[in-house]
Prior knowledge:
The structure is a homodimer. Chain A is of the alpha+beta class. The first copy, chain A, is built from 6 helices and 28 strands. Chain A has helices at 4-14, 152-160, 199-208, 224-233, 254-260, 295-314, and strands at residues 20-24, 37-38, 48-49, 53-56, 67-73, 87-91, 103-106, 110-113, 116-119, 130-131, 142-144, 165-169, 174-179, 183-184, 195-196, 216-220, 239-243, 264-268, 272-273, 279-283, 286-291, 320-325, 330-331, 337-344, 349-351, 368-372, 378-379, 384-389. In chain A, the strands form 8 sheets. A 6-stranded mixed sheet of chain A has the order 7-4-6-5-9-8, with no helix packed on it. In chain A, a hairpin with a 2-residue loop joins strand 20 and strand 21 (286-291). In chain A, helix 1 runs parallel beside helix 6 (295-314) and helix 4 packs across helix 5 (254-260). The first copy, chain A, is elongated, with a radius of gyration of 31 Å. The two termini of chain A are 31 Å apart. At the A-B interface, helix 2, strand 15, helix 3 and helix 6 of A face helix 2, strand 15, helix 3 and helix 6 of B.
Amino acid sequence: xxxxxxxxxxxxxxxxxxxxxxxxxxxxxxxxxxxxxxxxxxxxxxxxxxxxxxxxxxxxxxxxxxxxxxxxxxxxxxxxxxxxxxxxxxxxxxxxxxxxxxxxxxxxxxxxxxxxxxxxxxxxxxxxxxxxxxxxxxxxxxxxxxxxxxxxxxxxxxxxxxxxxxxxxxxxxxxxxxxxxxxxxxxxxxxxxxxxxxxxxxxxxxxxxxxxxxxxxxxxxxxxxxxxxxxxxxxxxxxxxxxxxxxxxxxxxxxxxxxxxxxxxxxxxxxxxxxxxxxxxxxxxxxxxxxxxxxxxxxxxxxxxxxxxxxxxxxxxxxxxxxxxxxxxxxxxxxxxxxxxxxxxxxxxxxxxxxxxxxxxxxxxxxxxxxxxxxxxxxxxxxxxxxxxxx
Amino acid sequence: xxxxxxxxxxxxxxxxxxxxxxxxxxxxxxxxxxxxxxxxxxxxxxxxxxxxxxxxxxxxxxxxxxxxxxxxxxxxxxxxxxxxxxxxxxxxxxxxxxxxxxxxxxxxxxxxxxxxxxxxxxxxxxxxxxxxxxxxxxxxxxxxxxxxxxxxxxxxxxxxxxxxxxxxxxxxxxxxxxxxxxxxxxxxxxxxxxxxxxxxxxxxxxxxxxxxxxxxxxxxxxxxxxxxxxxxxxxxxxxxxxxxxxxxxxxxxxxxxxxxxxxxxxxxxxxxxxxxxxxxxxxxxxxxxxxxxxxxxxxxxxxxxxxxxxxxxxxxxxxxxxxxxxxxxxxxxxxxxxxxxxxxxxxxxxxxxxxxxxxxxxxxxxxxxxxxxxxxxxxxxxxxxxxxxxx
Lengths: 391, 391
């Protein structure tokens, strides 16, 4: 039996085989860049008008004369004609300044007379209302660093400089195996001695919040041979999650089935509540988590351990761990770390009722897990404790 | 031209036609319950052992005699035989207690002698190691309230009481129309006068973070007739988002095309930077947002306005608005509300460089928008300002 700290350390030491993949930019939101991004072009790619108005050459501007408007350039068009002094062009926001021009006067600041304009703008200076070429990005310079988290704004930015694919740290492939003879599917009528299977639901939803769809979900009876077969089907996944059957009862076959499949046990049993029978092992690079079958144990081990393993692949931090004061006092048995369902607000964190590992009604109300240290027994109101926020 | 406060109020007043839909529980993560959920069964559905051990009747226990073990009940099985005094059954975690039993002794606390056991447990009381029927939920009582946000734990809880479908507030259907003659797709070679289209990328990613996939994305030239046709294709969506062409230039056809489609303008132009030409209108129940085409304006109007409209459908709060002290002083022009790209930490919020509406490199680094009030000009370091956190 290991401590929570040892379990964390052992999982951490056995993770770390992140893989890099090139994917379409549009699919990359929430993922982390696996390499620096260089700008393929200057942006703006040309001197660009920031306004609807008229473009001209500031230095050649004879303030006593009107400009002759010799053409028009709409955004998306390009005027190849080079302007000479005393000529201006009608220009619109986003359009490229024609050669020979460097300044734009807003349309509200001119007097228009047939095809001539008079500029009436005291504040205009050279370069007014122009977005200079390369003022955002310069070609071949680094514009986003490795390990950058891709947000909608990052994606808009990269699209705007012409990037359509990015290299990211791939999310792990994850397989789920739910064990238990007592389980029937929600929606069916309940039978004597049976309960509804809920762990696949909790895990699929929790993975969805990490933007991961499991590659497989299997349900299997408490039968060592069947469990072994299904495990061996999915040992090529990056992460294999099993629920139930991991304790030491006569019908707990998960750890023996894993052993027969060649999975190397890293630890089995953690000094914690809930989730004491928690198992962690490895088969080549595949991380194997055996979660105790009670639904609160499953989700708590997921949030406290499996999420960190997912992070080791994606290099993304999913949930915040904060230090917060307890709203109520609490007494626990020493010798186990407790993970308690809690509700935090901006001030403090409250411990919910119904902490037993089969109770999910309280978990449904929780927005965090409160960690109470193994060695301690009495926690007073106001004591600062670690809190894992998952909402 | 309306103020930011007026724009918010007008959008709020014109929203509110949330729709209710029944969907599979497994698809409901992150959505909000549209009705109370009643427990269809007691849970646990029977008195259940919390341990591997032996079940017996506490009141009939003769402490001077051993129990005869007359059977075994594995989780998922059911023993219909009723026990009599001096009989016990082998029982496993999660299994139903046979009739005539009410207490479980852990297997570690018995002395086993052939088919007899002697209980050696000082602390055992009536009901020890038993999860009573209905101790989590009682049949026909409310177990989750209307407006409850469905989390992985809520979903696991509901599955565990046998629920497989839930009524939720439906996310809106959203169509995107990107306008602009100057736009080419990322991945293609850049051409004179053209820029890369990025707004569909930013919007699709921002919607993905709200768990919404747009029902359509169209690209259209600055041509009133074409814009009108595409608008009329998608006026049955709950929300229609257009980008670009919403100003008053010679080639800005969005507001006239909307008018020709029968969309009623609610407001056009907001006293804000970026995004001054922002348009909001309505066609029957369809909300129509015309976002100015610069990519920073698009995302800022999305975060500040469109997200609230989405919330009016889903009843979900997506992003937090906090009050935070400025890390740096800032001077702006009075008369417009400024929304500035910022980075917040636990202490304060910093204003990033490159605030122009065509600059996305800074937005890519931002985790929030800082709101600076319309009337004010000078903001000092430490001044408390509203901050919309989107990461």
